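Appendix B, example 12.
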Amino acid sequence: MGTKNLVLEHLENNRGQSLSGAAIAESLGVSRNAVWKAIKELRSEGYEISAATNRGYSLEETSDILSKASIAAFLQEDASKVDVQVFDCLPSTSRTAKELAISGVTHGTLILADTQSEGTGRKQGRSFASPSGGIYMSLVLRPEQVHFSNITHVTACAAVCVCEALETVCAVSPKIKWVNDVFIGDKKVCGILTEAVTDFESGGLGWLVLGIGINFSARSDEFPESLRDIVCSVYPDGKPKMPRSQVIAEIVRRVLAMCEKGDDSEIFKKYKSRMMLLGEKVNVIQGDDVYSATALDINEDGHLIVKTESGEIQTLFSGEVSIRKTPIVNQL
């Protein structure tokens, strides 16, 4: 590891604290001049590093450049479980993660990008807007390391982990819209997509790629005009109070822990408690058919139970339908 990366790692591990150049040099076994050059280079790359006489250098709490060091600093003891790879821009983090999964990367490989040019959602052909300031991440999971009774429970697990991480780190109150979207208020802030990668030799399931896209600090005018009424950011003013790395690390730590634990009942208890449609009148869109129903419950497999206007109870499966809250019509 070069001096610049060593200095960055040291600053990340002591984010917000002032460290003298002499102390950094001694800790890393390099010269003070080498530290000064590294600081200068890091600043040129956009890192917010302050300097004060008799106090030294400090990486600002809100400095928000994604790096392996920044993620590791927030993962702390879990850092050894995650192989972080950061890119400025990718067509899709999930596409890259799937390619790497096929090549044999380890469980816990994390792909991050500052922006995506071809991010995709669960619905075939639908793009996921990926402006600067968002969180675009994909996590590679080996099925034998995921201990749920059904591998499809990973999506529900991810939705719960995203909600808990945003609530813990950002002090917001997210809800889940069946099956894989996270909302704040009545607007979407996160989409989740779980994809399987086949082992061509065995013909069985080789890997899972968990893709998560979060609108973190993009302002409303940075989204396509067609989306501004239905999506928002965690920090819509564009002024986050913490770096994205902290949120990313919190999500990853929670996902890996829950997959290792494999407690299906715990996941769906938490999943159901955050569900925003239960008890609501909804429109069910199934292909070209649209009908009204009431969302009743979530079963142990994560399927939505609805009651149609004719009184029929139906079970809706992931990937078959879209759910939209029925608009309220004012009565004159």
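The chain has eight helices and 14 strands. Residues 328-332 have pLDDT under 50 and may be disordered.
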